[in-house]
Amino acid sequence: MDSTSGKPENRPFRYHDSTRRERFQHSLFTNELSLEQKKNVLKNEYHIDISPDMEKEMEEMCNMSEGLCEWAMNKGIEQGIEQGMQQGKKQGMEQGMEQKAREDVIALLNFGMTEDQIAAALKQPVEQIQTWNLKEKKA
Fold it and tell me: Could you tell me the residue range of the domain that residue 69 belongs to?
């Protein structure tokens, strides 16, 4: 007997109504269960016999949800690729600009300018100029 309603308990597990409803909806709409598994859940846990028409509708619903999942996954991949390309462009530009600045520092040092003069001219901290100079000396 169900202690809240006095009606016979005819399900294997005791659920609160909201939990039972959520489980029912999850059983129908999840991609984690095959059509056969969904039919078994509906029959064994909810005592719902599946007619051929219902089975056909469930199969169509499963196919639609699989198609939707595939579309969403492809859309996510496209967005990820686009974001990756944008991020790659930005990093490439930053690296290119840093490489150019290092080359300029070396050229200016070879021209006879001091690190302080170069830092002032390029509006960079002296420490950055020294770092680029050290990297160039090691190369």
Answer: 51-138
Q: What is the C-alpha separation between 1 and 9, in angstroms, rounded?
A: 5
What are the angstrom distances between the C-alpha of 9 and each of 2, 3, 57, 68? 5, 9, 29, 37
Q: Each residue of 28-50: pLDDT tens digit?
A: 777 788 888 888 888 888 888 88
**Residue in this structure with the two tokens 């944008």, named with its chain if needed:** 86
Whole-model pTM: value is: 0.46
Is 15 contained in some domain?
no
What is the distance between the terminal CA atoms of the chain, rounded to a whole angstrom?
83
Q: Which has the closest alpha carbon to 69: 106, 32, 104?
A: 32
Alpha-carbon gap, residue 117 to 102, rounded angstroms: 15
In a domain, 26, yes or no: no
